[in-house]
Design brief:
By secondary structure, the protein is of the alpha/beta class. The chain is about 45% helix and about 15% strand.
């Protein structure tokens, strides 16, 4: 079993939990990517979360990724897991099953 902290950096997520619980993954909240181009503070926070996770041997997952520039930024900053509309919009289980099976056949 693995434990992730969802929406890290918002709400009740706390740095003290990182040492108290066996956390494997930090999920960076999508709200940090909304004003990505206009808010240097958000960019700094995202970089800090990624760095913190890497230093603690945790993975990071970025939520709400909608643009190629988000993906490029994440790669440059060593965050290799992401989810969002950039990759796929929500879909039925039948449709995602077909996509995955098509990928396996390649």
């Amino acid at each position: 079993m693995k434990i992730s902290i969802d929406d890290f950096g918002t709400g009740y997520s706390s740095l003290s939990r990182l040492g108290a619980l066996p956390i494997n993954t930090l999920k960076i909240d999508s709200s940090f990517f909304v004003d990505f181009n206009t808010t240097q503070k958000n960019i700094s926070i995202i970089k800090s979360i990624i760095s913190l996770a890497n230093n603690l041997s945790m993975k990071t997952i970025a939520e709400g990724i909608e643009k190629k520039e988000h993906v490029d930024f994440l790669k440059q900053n060593k965050c290799y897991l992401a989810q969002g509309f950039y990759f796929y919009k929500p879909m039925t289980s039948d449709k995602i099953t077909k996509i995955l099976l098509d990928q396996l056949e390649r």
